[in-house]
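Suppose you are handed a protein chain with no further information: no name, no annotation, nothing but its sequence. What can you learn? This example shows the usual starting point.
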Amino acid sequence: MNPSGLREAALAWLAQDPDPDTRAELAGLLDDPAALADRFGAKLEFGTAGLRGELGAGPNRMNRVTVMRAAAGLAAVLGPGKHVVIGYDARHKSDVFARDTAAVLTGAGLRASLLPEPLPTPVLAFAVRHLGADAGVTVTASHNPPRDNGYKVYWGDGSQIVPPVDGLISAAIDAVGPVDGLSLGEGEVLDGSIVEAYLAAVAQLPLGQERDLRVAYTPMHGVGHATLVGAFRAAGFDEPVTVEQQRDPDPDFPTVAFPNPEEPGAMDLALALATKVEADLVLANDPDADRCAVGVPLGDGTFRMLTGDEVGALLGEHVITHTAGDRLVATTIVSSTLLGKIAQTHGVRYTETLTGFKWIMRAGEGLVYGYEEALGYSVGGEHGLPVHDKDGIGAALTVAGIAAAAKRAGRTLLDLLDEQARRYGLHATSQLSFRVADLSLIAGAMARLRATPPATLGGKAVESWDDLSAGEGGLPPTDGLRYRLAGGARVVVRPSGTEPKLKCYLEVVVPVTGEIAEARATAAADLDALKADLRAVMGL
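A reasonable first move is to predict its three-dimensional structure. Written in structure tokens, the prediction is:
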């Protein structure tokens, strides 16, 4: 688009924009072609993750016009008379975007129910099914930087949308005219009983009988605190000791460089608090509380954060041993293969899906547990899965139950992990990412790997490899490669769906015949060797 076309697009946007903040921003940029090109030269694309991007004016930003168009597209796909539940976190503009969504939906003849306050994403996912709604929307950017926000859509089964629904909504959004021509109504606001129903549901998870546990917790400036404390109380646990500086919602996330428990430094305050109070367990949620991070004491006054795969294996075996009947557990192609061995030993069905909970929740009938290595878990019990999405509150509660039982027996979660390693082999996982400025470098690397697959990686023979773009094993096609190596090791290579990165997911399996420490040292060396070879092979 040329400069005059960009200016015309900006003026047309100004004419329909109901937000004085973005109108003022855009008015000051009308004579800045570079800034206009950044905002109007592209647009945020609606996909299976909905929308996510930086706040600001224009179609390539998150703002009230973008959100109202998304709501109008959703309304067109659903049709009049349908019921949509709307949740939101405490980020900048989240409450405004939620109310705009309700206004557009009701104006289009749908029923819109707003959650009563900023709440965790799993509460919204629960509410969709609990209320028998046809769809749900949550306004959140999860653990993205402070200047971002997002818009995620759930279908009537309480799980995130997948194709072809995302494509139908995207096409309907493209057909929406200026938002100042939309009919607007006013949605209803639900009362606190929806939160009480959620708390009652997660309190029925398989938590065991032990409750003696001292927990240090951080909600990372997000919306998790009140709900997690309520869940602990409902289940009979003492209230966790919370990091005071991070307890209340703050959309600027002032104490962390990046509000993600996996990021370096993000857990520093929680770990310091845990040391101070001599906690038995450290728990953290990301800002919308759909993920859960876990830390454990090492016995010398320090703590270690567990990986998502370690927590995933502990939760998986716990759920399997506390449920009965024909059950299914699931994880993704980039998570550890350990869950499959646990399931096989216990006679439980197991499957792998593409990355993302939208796929895990559609793994099949009888699903009682699903997880992904990026700290996402959905825990079920005898009443099934209360949340058809990742649930950082239910996961935290279940981990506390496991830790309390271990404490009563004089053990820790580390002891349980050692037991799994002895029983199934030590499964050690890691990641290697290549960030690029030119996306063509990623396409080139993937093409080279497909044309000339490596014969060995990390000194281990490549026994077989799968091109996941062909839809291998019944999976939907995705741009990825999976290598199976000698000794049970595995490497999955795939471009990131949200960042300019090529990501490698590594796993090695080491039999434990002697000391656990020796096996861990061997696994660490094997992972280092894999990383060295991958760096050479990628050429990035």
